[in-house]
């Protein structure tokens, strides 16, 4: 055997002759190299295929995630637009409440002006634009909504304070009839029932049966309860906001000075005491010490 050759001897069986195959060493070496290269290439192909399969799975996952985020992005845009609509509704409600309060407030204390931005971009109309444009619009709208929410919060606090004050004024306004009966003498100048001439009558004379219950026409504090020769048994109540009511010629009082009374609570009973010509209630209202016609406030 030459140093450059490999000899293979094949003995098939006893009857056949021995066969010899001579293979050059270079061929064997090249064959081994080719086999090694084939194995390496096969391993690389297998690895590359696995990597491609893994990348495809990751790509599919990312596509699904992007699709989900895109849907969430659109949902967020719709919610921002919906919140913008809701804020506009609140602004209109604010305006209506202020209009009503302005019309019903005698001193017009509550201004009609209410703040709020009118620069609004509908996010849904921008979804076909590039993402940077949509994100910028969303940021601007969120900032605007935050400013509107702050303005609306301050406005509602102002409305609450105003309505609380109005409720207090309403509770202090003597709007109920203190007793049921017939008005026999109006507020203003009248002929004196005790002689010739005229006199200024500072209240209403309400004629009704003796002993009938008299109620407080509004919440207040009893500041006077006693007897005077002219007024007979009397009661005076301060209601706040300058309102004071007086009740004269009572048969008796049901409250004492210093008592707090509620609207509709019994405070005394109709009588004929003092300078009187029969059973009746003299009912008077003053604002900041000035006598006014009670009919201005009676329901």
Would you mind describing this structure in some detail?
- By secondary structure, the protein is α+β, with helices and mostly antiparallel strands.
- It has three domains: 5-68; 75-172; 182-296, Glucose Permease (Domain IIA), CATH 2.70.70.
- The chain has two helices and 14 strands; from the N terminus they run E-E-H-H-E-E-E-E-E-E-E-E-E-E-E-E.
- The strands form three sheets. Strands 3, 6, 7, 8, 9, 10, 11, 12, 13 and 14 form a ten-stranded antiparallel sheet that branches.
Can you tell me the CATH class of the largest domain? Mainly Beta
- Pattern of helices and strands: EEHHEEEEEEEEEEEE
Return the CATH architecture of the largest domain.
Distorted Sandwich
The CATH superfamily of the largest domain appears as Glucose Permease (Domain IIA)
CATH fold annotation of the largest domain: Glucose Permease (Domain IIA)
Helix content: 40-55%
The share of residues in extended strands comes to: 25-35%
Main sheet characteristics: 10 strands, antiparallel
Instruction: Tally the beta strands.
Output: 14
Structural category: alpha+beta
Distance between the termini: 138 Å
What is the count of structural domains? 3
Supply the key terms:
299 residues; alpha+beta; Glucose Permease (Domain IIA); ten-stranded antiparallel beta sheet; two-stranded antiparallel sheet; 2 helices; 41% helix
């Amino acid at each position: 055997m030459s140093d450059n050759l490999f000899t293979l001897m094949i003995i098939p069986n006893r009857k056949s002759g021995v066969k010899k195959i001579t293979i050059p060493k270079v061929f064997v070496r090249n064959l081994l190299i080719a086999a090694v290269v084939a194995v390496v290439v096969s391993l690389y192909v297998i690895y590359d295929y696995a990597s491609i399969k893994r990348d495809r799975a990751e790509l599919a996952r990312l596509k699904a995630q992007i699709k989900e985020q895109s849907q969430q992005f659109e949902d967020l845009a719709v919610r921002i637009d919906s919140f913008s609509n809701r804020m506009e509704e609140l602004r209109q409600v604010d305006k209506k409440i202020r209009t009503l309060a302005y019309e019903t407030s005698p001193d017009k204390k509550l201004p009609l002006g209410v703040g709020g931005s009118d620069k609004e971009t509908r996010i849904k109309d921008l979804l076909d634009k590039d993402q940077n444009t949509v994100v910028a619009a969303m940021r601007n709208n969120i900032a605007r909504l935050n400013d509107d929410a702050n303005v609306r919060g301050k406005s509602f606090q102002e409305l609450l304070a105003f309505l609380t004050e109005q409720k207090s004024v309403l509770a202090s306004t003597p709007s109920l009839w203190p007793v049921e009966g017939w008005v026999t003498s109006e507020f203003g100048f009248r002929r004196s029932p005790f002689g010739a001439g005229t006199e200024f009558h500072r209240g209403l004379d309400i004629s009704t049966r003796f002993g009938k219950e008299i109620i407080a026409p509004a919440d207040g504090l009893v500041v006077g309860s006693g007897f005077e020769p002219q007024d007979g048994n009397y009661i005076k109540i301060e209601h706040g906001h300058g309102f004071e009511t007086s009740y004269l010629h009572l048969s008796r009082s049901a409250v004492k000075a210093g008592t707090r009374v509620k609207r509709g609570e019994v405070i005394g009973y109709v009588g004929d005491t003092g300078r009187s010509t029969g059973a009746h209630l003299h009912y008077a209202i003053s604002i900041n010490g000035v006598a006014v016609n009670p009919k201005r406030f009676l329901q």
